[in-house]
Amino acid sequence: MPTVEISRKDLEKLVGRKASSMEGLEEWLMWVKGEIDDVDGDTIKVDVKDTNRPDLWSVEGMAREIRGHLKIEGGLPHYTVGEALTEVFVDKKLKDIRPVIGCAIVKNVKFDDESIRQLMQLQEKIHHTFGRKREYVAIGVSNFDKIKPPIFYKAVKPDELKFPPLGFEEEMTPAEILEKHPKGQEYGHLVEMFKRYPIIVDSKKEVISMPPIINSNTIGRIDENTRNVFIDVTGLREEDVFTALNVMVTVLADRGGEIYGVVVHDVNGKKLVLPDLTPKSVEVESEKIRRILGIEISDHEIVELLKDARYDAEVVKDGVIVAKYLPTRNDILHWRDVAEDVAISFGYNDILPAELAVSTHGELSRRELLSDKIRELMLGYELQEVMTFTLTNKEVLFTKMNRKEEDVVEIANPVSSSWTTIRNTILPCLMEFLARNKHVEYPQRIFEVGDVVEIDEKAETATRTKRHLAIAIASSTASFTEIKEIVESFAKQLGLKFEYEEEKDGAFIEGRCARIMLGNKKIGVMGEINPAVLNNWELEMPVAAAEIELEEIMKHL
Amino acid sequence: MELERNEALVLKAMIDGNEYSVNELVEKTKLNIAAVVKALEGLKVRKLVEVREEEKDVLELSEEGEKALEEGVVERKLVKELVEAGGNKPVDDIETQPKDVAIGWAIKKGWVKLEKKDNKRFVVVTARGKEHADKEDELEKALRDIAEGRKVEDKLIKILRSRGLVEAEKKSERYARITKEGEKVAGTIKEIKEEVTLLTPDLIKTGKWKEVEIKRYDVKDPVREIYPAKKQPYRAFLDEVKRKLISMGFKEMEGPLIELEFWNFDALFQPQNHPARTWTDTYKLKHPSHGKLPAKKIVERVKKTHENGWKTGSKGWRYKWSEEIASQLMPRAQGTALSARTLASLPEIPGKYFAIARCYRPDKLDATHLIEFNQVEGIVLGEELNFRHLLGILKTFAKEVARAEKVKFYPDYYPFTEPSVQLSAKHPELGWVELGGAGIFREEVTKPLGIDVPVIAWGLGIDRLAMFKLGIKDIRYLFSYDLEWIRKHKAIITL
């Protein structure tokens, strides 16, 4: 979710009205799914929840929407696109590299600190979220007055030319930029596998930008004195690229800029005149909207509410509404998306919550029910319940437990070497718990009923999540007998009969370790912990422990 | 008048009107000195006895005296030595020490005499001496009497003091005598029972408990701190949440910790290039890497829904959907995966389901972030469900879980619901808190899974509430590794 920093004064100026209070401002922001994250004087950080609406990620876009809801200006926002001022020719070689480009020119822009900051921020937010970190969309903003048209979007060899990248005086080849420039290092992976890199140059072969990495330090640089800008948006799909282009030009137009066109001869040789701000439209059945929202509103009221949300809507025939919207939005996939806009215009807090009349029967899952009973039983044996993390590592699971490594899940992108797998047994986690409480009064008697994950290649998820019970008793008198008494009693209380056989398990003392059997199946292990294992955990107290699988037990109950 | 047992014992011992020292009362009552002194204090306050104090010489055995009590006086040791040696011994060979003192006293008592033979002086035991060799001497008895606090004749005391066997020390001694009032009270004391500290099975069985007095305790005395075994505090909190949900008619859902991306994302209409699906936002598995996709019919529908909307009335995301990506495995990142699975497995309509699902997120672990956490999530299915019901359910949650009467709804965004809403509730102690997010599942989610009715999906953010209820500032304490904290935490946790 993008967090956008805005100036309250700037927002109020663009809206054309002052917010009555911080609460009033909060109400305004509800219309753009914005939540105030932080306020520092005039600066307000807004979390904009909708990750599919780049048109709301700028103060200008927010103001446009708020003006509608405040009824300062309703319906479709009006923008005009002037004649095409230049042409862009796209190199066929870009087809498999970065084929799509959209361009526009905005003239007579009056930049100041705040508006430049907003533009940069919007560019960055679009890059990150909507553009999937520039893979799908990358935007360049350049000084149009320095460009000698026409413009060429080309694929060049990594060392074919040289130019100073933004922020550098020194000229570099594209290959050098990937290596040396911070943006090259960050986004180089998007182009480095190709033999040629995308580049935008003018008729004098001056570089404008090297998408999706960096602008040039000459043409591709804007400041407060820049009046006329050239915008290039490159990417993989027309709909993303053109939406981003539309968002950029409308924001500049909201600041008083005049939009002019660019003729793009695209990668397939097709001629496009951009930006294309022709409204999109969606047809909805009003009855469906009424039914999903549960509110009694007429078709006419729906039309009015949609105007507040900056649609131009009309009832085309009985029960059918056609809603037109600015092509700065690409998020309307379904009539439900329109229904939500109707609800937002109506006001979520003006909709009366309704009681759910259906009565259903609530219950726990069988596994959880059994787990709860077992937890109760364990408390009866004076064992304290603990909850440990299921994320762990092989050292905890095997090395420290003196056990042979088993097949467990492995996380591909761990954030720490402490969490590289999910446990297949709970006992190591209980040992870790004991090890962290050496200073606490003994005896320490603990248990956990929790989940473990086992590999099972045949299963749907190639793993099975299983419920286990583990017990550990640390005391000067902890013994095999003590743990066996509990396990045996546990079986009897469940009405089961366990059998015991001698087991070899490195975690336990040989000769004081038993395999717990139920109906010829091994369901667990118990015994006195091997002093070598106690040493590994730096424990100085004897520990008796058991671990039992509950899945098999469930089958017998 | 109410007398304590010891007071009654002491008073009764004095009924003859004589004056008694503390030591005498100790002997008569078989109580210890401290008990007698305490009882006398009590009796004195109530004027049942008069107590006077007297400074007097108290005799104590000297080091020599102690030795004489243990081994006998030196003259007797001497005659013993002589008897063992056959009746006489040269003076030079005498072992009993101090030799001169021993010989002097023995001669005085007529137990030995000195004889000269071959120019050597011999000590010879007399007949009287032989008699006393194995008999306790009167001095020895006097020493014992003094040691045990009994009276001794003045004549003997004089000898013992002159021989340095006893020393006198000035001490104040208490003497007590019963008063007239005391006599009256003593007359009313019937029977003083034996006192026991421990009520034994034997006392109960034999009925002897009726004849004894069970020692009174000071009930204000401090005791050792002990801790009951109890539910882990966070579990106790979650159990309360569960109880609420069940009482509201929700059935529990279950699912695996390792999930297919298909259920975690694709079935929830999150496109395969969605930022939430990248390495930085969700854990991926290296091993095992892929699982098996569900029935072909469902996979086909989900694929088409992503690619062109299928029959859901949607435009879809318009990209080439990959089975390979969908079959990748990951530690479950959102509880909603369970809702998707439930929708695909013929749920009840109308129906309500919930889960407290363990989820994973590659984050830093610190006081405000967990990498492994529980999400409380659920769905409600019903033919006639609409957005107002969604708001109604959220309002009920706010009331039941956060005891909040006031709620506020904010427009929100989730990839799988439309419309979406965020719930804020005014908690009586915490003020306004974000309590959850919800929405009506998109038809792009429900239809491919075979569900044709509206489905409300909700999630409750209860961690902040849990932290408040558990009184913790550090979120890691939800999964506390601090046994002392768990032991001391209060057992009763209410919502």
3D architecture notes:
The complex is a heterodimer of chains A (557) and B (495). Chain A is an alpha+beta fold. In chain A, strands 4, 5, 6, 7, 8, 9, 10, 11, 12 and 13 form a ten-stranded mixed beta sheet that branches. Chain A has a seven-stranded mixed beta sheet with strand order 17-21-22-26-25-24-23. In chain A, helix 1 crosses helix 3. Chain B has 495 residues and is of the alpha+beta class. Chain B folds into four domains: 5-62 and 142-192, Arc Repressor Mutant, subunit A, CATH 1.10.10; 74-136, Orthogonal Bundle (Arc Repressor Mutant, subunit A), CATH 1.10.10.10; 193-219, no CATH class; 233-488, BirA Bifunctional Protein, domain 2 (2-Layer Sandwich), CATH 3.30.930. Helices cover 36% and strands 23% of the residues of chain B. In chain B, strand 15 (407-411) and strand 16 (417-427) form a beta hairpin. The longest helix of chain B has 16 residues, at 387-402. At the A-B interface, helix 8, helix 10, helix 11, strand 17 and strand 19 of A face helix 12, strand 9, strand 10, strand 11 and strand 13 of B. Strand 19 of chain A pairs antiparallel with strand 11 of chain B.
Characteristics:
heterodimer; A: 557 residues; alpha+beta; Phenylalanyl-tRNA Synthetase, Chain B, domain 1; Phenylalanyl-tRNA Synthetase, Chain B, domain 3; 4 domains; 10-stranded mixed sheet; 7-stranded mixed sheet; 16 helices; 26 strands; 29% helix; B: 495 residues; Arc Repressor Mutant, subunit A; 3-stranded antiparallel sheet; 18 strands; 36% helix; elongated
